[in-house]
TrEMBL record:
Catalytic activity: (S)-3-amino-2-methylpropanoate + 2-oxoglutarate = 2-methyl-3-oxopropanoate + L-glutamate; 4-aminobutanoate + 2-oxoglutarate = succinate semialdehyde + L-glutamate
EC number: 2.6.1.19, 2.6.1.22
Family assignment from sequence similarity: Belongs to the class-III pyridoxal-phosphate-dependent aminotransferase family.
Taxonomic source organism: Paenibacillus terreus
MF annotations from Gene Ontology: 4-aminobutyrate:2-oxoglutarate transaminase activity
Protein name: (S)-3-amino-2-methylpropionate transaminase
Superkingdom, natural source: Bacteria
SUPFAM superfamilies: PLP-dependent transferases
Keyword annotations: Aminotransferase, Pyridoxal phosphate, Transferase
Length: 448
C-alpha cells in the first residue's frame, strides 16, 4: 500500500508540458556535451525540496552534486547576498579589496585542521582550487610530479582531467593530458580479496603505495600527493584509516606535500567540518568548494602559511576569485552550520540511511554494499552471484525514484553506486518519506 505523501507531489506524467517545451529549446541552444541527469527544470527550491516548472515537488537527495549542505535558499544566506548586492557586486580583489574576503580567509584558516599558521586564497570553482593547489605545491617544492589515485575525481579542466581517473565521460578523446601526473592504487574495501581482514587489506594497500614510489614515481621528483579523504565520483569509497595515515606519513618522510581534496567531503558532509579529521591527519593544503556558499560559485585553497606564500604576487588568483557575493554567502553558511550544528546532523542522517538499507539488503541481495561516513552514504548494487556491477539496475532505480519524486545520483566507475547528498537541513519527516519511496521503487523493480 502506497503511503500518502506529505512533501512529494507529482501532478502527472514526467516530464510535464512546460518542461517538454524547455527541453525542446535546450536541445536547440545548449551544447550536447552539457549533460543532464534528469529532464527537470526548476522553478523554485527551499531546504530539501525542489519545485519544477510544472508544479511537481521533488525531495532532493542530490543537493546539486553536494553543493547544498546548508539547503536550498537558506534565509540568512539569501539576506547576506541581497545586502551585499546593494553595496557592490564586484570590484576584483586584485583591484579593490573588501573585508568579506579577509574574513572568510581567516575563518577557513581557523576551521581547517592543523596546529600551525594557515593562509587561504579564494577562487571560483573546485577545479580551479585543485589547479592552484598544484601550482602552489610545485612552486614551494620546486618539483613537478603530482600523484593522484585510481577512481579519483579532481575536475574537468586540463589538469583536473589529468588527475582524474575515470575515462568516460571526463577524458575520452580529450588528450593529450598534463605531464608529470602519476596514478597510484586506492583501496576499495568492499572488493578486497575475501581471505584478507580489513587490517590486512589496509596494510596491503599501503605496501602497494610504498612500492609505487619505487616503481612509478621517484619521491625526489614529487611535489604532492592529492587525495580525496572519501572518494566522491569514484563511488563514495571510504579508505581504511591506516592507509590514509600511512600515505600521509610517507609524504612526510619524503618531503612530499599532502593535498586533501575536500571539495565534496567538506563542510559537514561526513559529520565533521573536514573529512581529514576522521583520519587524524593535518594536510599541508586543502581544496574546498561545493557546499561552502550554498550554491554560489566560490572555492579556496587553505594551507600552511609558508607553503601558501610560495607564489609571488600575481601568480595565483583571478578576476572573479573570491567574489563579494560568494564571500558573504560562505560566511553566512559557516554561521548557519555552527548555529544549527549541521555536522552532528550529518551523522544522524547517515546513520538513518545506512540502517535503512542494511535492513533492505536482507530482502534484496542485489544491494552489495552499504557504506559511508556521516551523511556521505552510498549503496553499491552488484549481482548476487558474482558481485559484478549492476549498473543497469542502478539506473533503473534512479529513474523509478525520479518518477515518484526523488532526485538521486549515481557514482562509481561502473555507474552502479547510488550516492546520497541531501541537504543536511532535511527534516526527519522528509528523510523518512524519501526512504519509503526508495523502498517502494526497489521492491517494484527488483526480481530476485
Amino acid at each position: 500500500m502506497v503511503k500518502e505523501r506529505k512533501y512529494v507531489r507529482i501532478e502527472g506524467p514526467l516530464p510535464g508540458p512546460k518542461t517538454a517545451e524547455l527541453l525542446r529549446r535546450r536541445e536547440a541552444a545548449v551544447a550536447s556535451g552539457v549533460g543532464n541527469n534528469f529532464p527537470l527544470f526548476v522553478e523554485s527550491a527551499s531546504g530539501a525540496l525542489l519545485t519544477d516548472v510544472d508544479g511537481n515537488v521533488f525531495l532532493d537527495f542530490a543537493g546539486a552534486i553536494g553543493t547544498l549542505n546548508a539547503g536550498h535558499c537558506p534565509p540568512t544566506v539569501v539576506q547576506a547576498v541581497q545586502q551585499q548586492a546593494e553595496r557592490f557586486l564586484h570590484t576584483c580583489f586584485h583591484v579593490g579589496m573588501y573585508e568579506p574576503y579577509i574574513e572568510l580567509a581567516e575563518k577557513l584558516a581557523a576551521l581547517a585542521p592543523g596546529s600551525f599558521a594557515k593562509k587561504a586564497v579564494l577562487l571560483n570553482s573546485g577545479a580551479e582550487a585543485v589547479e592552484n593547489a598544484v601550482k602552489i605545491a610545485r612552486k614551494h617544492t620546486g618539483k613537478p610530479g603530482i600523484v593522484s589515485f585510481t577512481r579519483g575525481f579532481h575536475g574537468r579542466t586540463l589538469l583536473g582531467m589529468s588527475l582524474t581517473s575515470k575515462v568516460r565521460p571526463y577524458k575520452f578523446q580529450m588528450g593529450p593530458f598534463a605531464p608529470a601526473i602519476y596514478k597510484a592504487p586506492y583501496p576499495y574495501p568492499y572488493h578486497r580479496p575475501g581471505a584478507m581482514s580489513e587490517e590486512e587489506y589496509a596494510r596491503f594497500c599501503l605496501d602497494q603505495f610504498a612500492d609505487f614510489l619505487l616503481t612509478e614515481a621517484a619521491p625526489e621528483e614529487l611535489a604532492a600527493v592529492i587525495m580525496e579523504p572519501v572518494q566522491g565520483e569514484g563511488g563514495f569509497i571510504v579508505p581504511p584509516k591506516l592507509f590514509v595515515q600511512g600515505v600521509y606519513e610517507l609524504c612526510r618522510q619524503h618531503s612530499i606535500l599532502f593535498i586533501a581534496d575536500e571539495i565534496q567531503t567538506g563542510f559537514g558532509r561526513t559529520g565533521t567540518m573536514f573529512a581529514s579529521t576522521h583520519f587524524g591527519i593535518e594536510p599541508d593544503l586543502i581544496t574546498v568548494s561545493k557546499s561552502l556558499a550554498a550554491g554560489l560559485p566560490i572555492s579556496a585553497v587553505v594551507g600552511r602559511a609558508d607553503i601558501m606564500d610560495a607564489p609571488n604576487p600575481g601568480e595565483i588568483g583571478g578576476t572573479y576569485g573570491g567574489s563579494p557575493l560568494g564571500c558573504v554567502a560562505a560566511l553566512a553558511v559557516l554561521d548557519q552550520m555552527e548555529r544549527e550544528n549541521l555536522c552532528e546532523r550529518a551523522g544522524q542522517i547517515g546513520l538513518r540511511i545506512r540502517d535503512h538499507f542494511n535492513k533492505l539488503q536482507k530482502q534484496h541481495p542485489i544491494i552489495g554494499d552499504v557504506r559511508g561516513l556521516g551523511a556521505m552514504c552510498a549503496i553499491e548494487f552488484t549481482e548476487p552471484s558474482d558481485r559484478k556491477p549492476a549498473a543497469v539496475f542502478a539506473a533503473g532505480l534512479i529513474r523509478a525514484c525520479y518518477d515518484k519524486g526523488i532526485i538521486l545520483l549515481t557514482a562509481g566507475v561502473h555507474g552502479n553506486v547510488i550516492r546520497f547528498l541531501s541537504p543536511l537541513v532535511i527534516t526527519d519527516e522528509q528523510l523518512e518519506e524519501g526512504l519509503d519511496i526508495m523502498s517502494e521503487s526497489l521492491s517494484e523493480i527488483y526480481v530476485g
